[in-house]
Amino acid sequence: MDFKEINQIIDKFNNSTLRELEINEGQFHLRLSKNENMTPVVNSVEKNINTNTSENVSETKDLTDVTTENVIKSPMVGTVYLQPEPGKDKYVTKGSKVKQGDVVCIIEAMKMMTEVKSNVSGVIEDVLVENEDLIEFDQPLFKVKEG
Fold first, then answer.
1. Distance in angstroms (rounded) separating the CA atoms of residues 35 and 40
2. Which of 23, 67, 74, 128 has the CB geometry, 3.0–4.6 Å to 30, for a possible disulfide?
3. Is the CATH code 2.40.50.100 the one for domain 42-146?
4. What are φ and ψ of residue 32, in 5° steps?
5. CA angle 137, 108, 11 (to 5 degrees)
6. End-to-end CA distance of the chain
7. CA dihedral 50, 92, 22, 10 (to 10 degrees)
8. pTM beyond cutoff 0.85
9. Which residues of the chain have pLDDT under 70?
10. H or E segment at 12?
11. DSSP letter, residue 89
């Protein structure tokens, strides 16, 4: 990716309603944020999240029991895809066994696809989003019971 393309991406990002953008292409990595207090993303799985804050409450799922589980969270804003392409099986469903590094979904932002991988081995306890949902940065996507 050359300097001109990067500047075009930055200009489009600045003129969009997106709050976060992350692009990984080979060894190239670009992360843009309009958030003042950006939290660095180290893992897409975070243990023992606090569900009392409104940021972690999903409108479609009750997350009150998430505190004892591992949660795979969104590393970015975008559209979540639970299957590799239409008509194909979902990456994971409730009850699926996952190993560390397994792809659990894809997030699309600005025509860039980013794989979300599990950082723990275990069983998917719950899928907290629907296919093609618009998701926010740090939004819980899956509950995983380690094991």
1. 11
2. 23
3. yes
4. -120, 140
5. 80
6. 41
7. -120
8. no
9. 1, 35-69
10. helix 3-14
11. P
